[in-house]
Amino acid sequence: MRTNKNIIGFWGYPHPDLLEKYKQLYPNAQWIDFDIDYGFTDQNILPESYCSIIKNIINCAINYKENLIVILAPIGKDKCDSGWFAYEILKDMGFNIIPSTFEEKNRKRDVKISVSDLPLRKKIELITKGIYAPQNLEIKTVKAKFGFWGVPPNDLSVLELFPDETHVYGWTRCVEAMAPADIELEMYIDKDVPTVFYSQSFCSKAQLAKYLADKHNGLYIDMDDKATNSTKAKIEAFLRLR
Amino acid sequence: MINIVLDAGTTWSKIIEVSSSSLMKDYSKYLIKEENGRKYYIMPSCKLKETGFKFDKGTGHMSLSMLKDEKAYENEVIALIQGFRQKTADDGTILDMGSRDSKRAMFKNGKFKDLDWNSSCSSSTGATIEMLLKFYNIDVKSLVPAEEKYVITCGIFGLEKIMDDISKGSDAKIAVSKFIHGIAHNAWVFAKKPDKIYLSGGFCENECFVNSLGRYCEVVPLGRFLLCEGLL
Q: Which is it for strands B12-18 and B4-8: parallel, antiparallel or unpaired?
């Protein structure tokens, strides 16, 4: 029977063995990162005031439903409790969805993109793309002038405020290191590098972001959907003053 | 040469014009004072567009379309810090309380240490107070600082507490004073509980607020034109 199902959806960092299995099973599938905001209409399944990333996941799943082969769904410490609940909701709604836990550290590798001279937005886009498509790039390491700590923001445009000499820390760095549940690496920063600690509003990682910002005299920001002018101005001021 | 600068707030715009310039001559009703070769104006921001002026420098997002050159735009926190530094070289905390947001910067050992910008919650800002004073027809000068305060985590919840107390027979002035006390406490916490606050913005003219904040720390009001002065 002919099928038009050609999409594999995922969020977070599914276990590499699971990624490899589905790459081999469906070599021509299109991989789509459900964490990202593609501008779909909110399906009103989650509360209005809730993590935009988790809302993206639900909205993506419903939008792509007819074309989905499977959803690979991290539910462990490599993602968050909200990822686990999102998995349960989508399973209950009848999606073909596979839970994934990627908490081991034995695959850990050095980071290159996080400390490169690429624009910050490009760095983070390459790191997240690298989850399902390895990035073999010639890249140059640069000394950090600033740091960006956190998950990829829902509004990626905020990253364009930073100079190219910005290193990536937090969960995004853990993803590049193939250790998304490595809490020590997630909490690691370079003490002399002025760092912006970012959290998505309504995300439990705000705990870490606020604590680390206070501890290391950085700037804590949280953003909901899109960055407001004031949020952008606050970051600009921090970058100019530090 | 800089003749006229603008701090375009959400509800009120602050303008400083050098005395030799006469661009604002038709808007003398908004003149607040003239001193040291400068004229100081405050006008409703909704009237700003009709002037058609192009300013030499500006801060506040509403000023962006009213500048001679978009490069003459200055970040609000930077303008605040520059204005603060013109007033004093002291260490400490400068806090700007605006219509809808509050900004602070902290200095230690003569160097910038920390900043924050509470950009969206009306629980700590002036527009809520202005609306309350109009709604209950209260002269701000008649307010007496309240011993008690409302714990205000959100402006809307704060309004609910005022209305609840008034419906139980409380005097509106006392209820608004408790609300202002709650805002003052929030401002002190937002500023990281310092011993001394240099205050900027419209709240400098609200004695009830200044005295309520004074329960927690020393307060040095620097007036409403600090950001504008930071542009000169």
A: antiparallel
**Residue B112 contacts A where some CB pair is shorter than 8 Å:** yes
DSSP sequence for B88-151: ----EEEEEE-SS-EEEEEEETTEEEEEEEE-S-GGGSHHHHHHHHHHTT--GGG----SS---
B148-204 residue pLDDT tens: 988 877 777 778 888 889 999 999 999 999 999 999 999 999 999 999 999 999 999
Helix and strand tally (H, E) in chain A?
8, 8
The candidate with the shortest Cα–Cα distance to B23, out of B35, B6, B10, B36, is B6
Question: What does the pLDDT read at residue A38?
Answer: 95
Q: Are residues B87 and B59 in the same domain?
A: no
Q: How far is A69 from chain B (nearest CA, A)?
A: 42
Q: Does B7 touch chain A (CB under 8 A)?
A: no
Residue A40 confidence class, pLDDT cut points 50, 70, 90: very high
Residue of A nearest to B114 (CA): A217
Q: Which residue of A has its CA nearest to B192?
A: A214
Q: CATH classification of A7-100, choosing from 3.40.50.11890, 3.30.230.10, 2.60.120.560, 3.40.50.300? A: 3.40.50.11890
Does residue B165 lie in a domain region? Answer: yes
Q: Does the distance separating the beta carbons of A231 and B115 come in below 8 Å? A: no
- For residue A213, the chain B residue with the least C-alpha distance is B114
Size of chain B, expressed as the number of residues it contains? 232
For residue A1, pLDDT over 50 is answered with: no
Q: Quickly list DSSP for A41-63.
A: PP-S-S-SSS-HHHHHHHHHHHH
Would you call A230 and B120 a contact, using CB atoms and an 8 Å cutoff?
yes
CB contact (8 A) between residue A237 and residue B77: yes
Are residues B43 and B26 in contact, defined by beta-carbon separation less than 8 angstroms?
no
Considering A10-14, B142-146, B167-171, the range whose residues carry the highest mean pLDDT is A10-14
- The answer as to whether B232 is a domain residue is no
Domain residue spans of chain A: 7-100, 113-241
| ipTM of the complex as predicted | 0.71
Q: Tell me: the pLDDT tens digits for A56-68?
A: 999 999 999 999 9
Is residue B124 very low, low, confident or very high in pLDDT (cuts 50, 70, 90)?
low
Same domain for B53 and B158: no
* pLDDT band of B116, cuts 50, 70, 90: confident
Contact B115 A240 (CB under 8 A): no
End-to-end Cα separation, chain A, in angstroms:
62
Chain A interface includes B160 (CB < 8 A): no
> Do residue B114 and residue A217 have CB atoms under 8 angstroms apart?
yes
Asked if residue B69 is part of any domain, the answer here is: yes
Our count of domains for chain B comes to 2
Could you tell me the residue range of the domain that residue B66 belongs to?
Answer: 4-74
